[in-house]
Amino acid sequence: MAFCKFCGSEIPEGGVCSCPAAQAEAQGQNAVAQVNDFAQDNNVYGQGGANQNNNFNPNELVDKAKKNPAILIGAAAALLVLIILLVFICGNMGAKGAAKKYAKALSKKGKGKTYYSLTLPKDKIKDLKDDDKWDDMIDDYNDHMSDTLDDYKIKVKSVKKGKKLSKKALKGAEAVWESYGADDPTAKKGYEFKIKIQAKDKDDDDKETNTEKVCVVKFKGEGWKVIPMEAESLENKGDKDKKSSSSSYDFDDYDLDDYDLDDFDF
Questions:
Q1: One domain for residues 82 and 132
Q2: Whole-number Å distance between alpha carbons of 13 and 135
Q3: Is 67 domain-assigned?
Q4: Rg of the chain over CA atoms, in angstroms?
Q5: Does residue 76 sit in the same domain as residue 144?
Q6: Are residue 67 and residue 150 in the same domain, yes or no?
Q7: Which residue, of 59, 169, 195, 237, has the greatest Cβ tally within 10 A?
Q8: What is Dmax (Cα atoms) for the chain?
Q9: 266 residues of the chain, pLDDT tens digit each
Q10: Into how many domains does the chain fold?
């Protein structure tokens, strides 16, 4: 009759004790066996078998982990870092990622390229570059924000995802995007976001917090773009004929004040 080395209970020959320690060891051994089987089936160790590759020995790794719990703690910490990294990446991609970049462009210096890349169709951007206007627009935006930030300290308080855009709102988004210079745009999906920004006057420390509603729309072939309008406005435009719902924006005499830059009244 055999006895468990962990708890001392009697166990049948070839059996495994039901105590947690024995069960954990058994599961670890099973995992090692599965790794070995996989490695051999896929020729991980080479033609000479497991002993040929001294750099990969799962049995040794398990033994080290048993003797040194720090190894397990380190593995858990690495997994936690990976999870945090994935959350960060997901948070900076997609609709919310676009909304955050837009908000940062409203609160930081030197974000003119980001602002216009998010709020203009790629067709219009190409035209502006061909007409040598793209760089001028970016410079003007950056100068405008630089002057603003000389007087105010601007902080993004929150970027919150709201309701999903209706089909009518998506139709309105297509109309707006077409008026901005897109060639036959297709809006696949979108969301309304609330962006809360606080402006603090550097001279008298007065604070003002304002909230802007914008729509972040995924256009076919362009990805996520920002339309500085709320969902209701897009729905109203969606009620009208697509080609006549929005007059085309004339970038020949562009004015930053006409392009929703001052919505927050800083």
A1: no
A2: 80
A3: yes
A4: 30
A5: no
A6: no
A7: 169
A8: 94
A9: 677 776 767 777 777 777 777 776 776 565 555 545 545 555 544 444 444 445 556 566 566 655 666 655 666 666 666 566 455 444 446 899 999 999 999 999 999 999 999 999 999 999 999 999 999 999 999 999 999 899 889 999 999 999 999 999 999 999 999 999 999 999 999 999 999 999 888 888 788 899 999 999 999 999 999 999 999 999 999 876 444 444 444 444 444 444 444 444 43
A10: 2
Tabulate helix, strand, coil % of the chain (nearest 5). 50, 20, 35
In this structure, what token pair is assigned to residue 152?
A: 């105010």
* Domain membership flag for residue 253: no
Sorted by sequence, the CB contacts under 8 Å of residue 179 that are 6+ apart come out as 245, 246, 247, 248, 249
Query: Is residue 257 in a domain?
Result: no
On whether both 111 and 241 belong to a single domain, the answer is yes
> Which pTM was predicted?
0.60
* Contact residues for 212 (Cβ-Cβ < 8 A; gap 6+): 194, 195, 197, 228, 263, 264
Residue 135 CA from chain centroid, whole number: 27
Could you give the residue ranges of the DSSP H alpha helices within the chain?
20-41, 58-67, 69-91, 94-105, 112-119, 122-130, 134-151, 167-179, 231-238
List the domain range (segments joined by +) for residue 116: 99-248
215 has which bridge partners?
192, 227
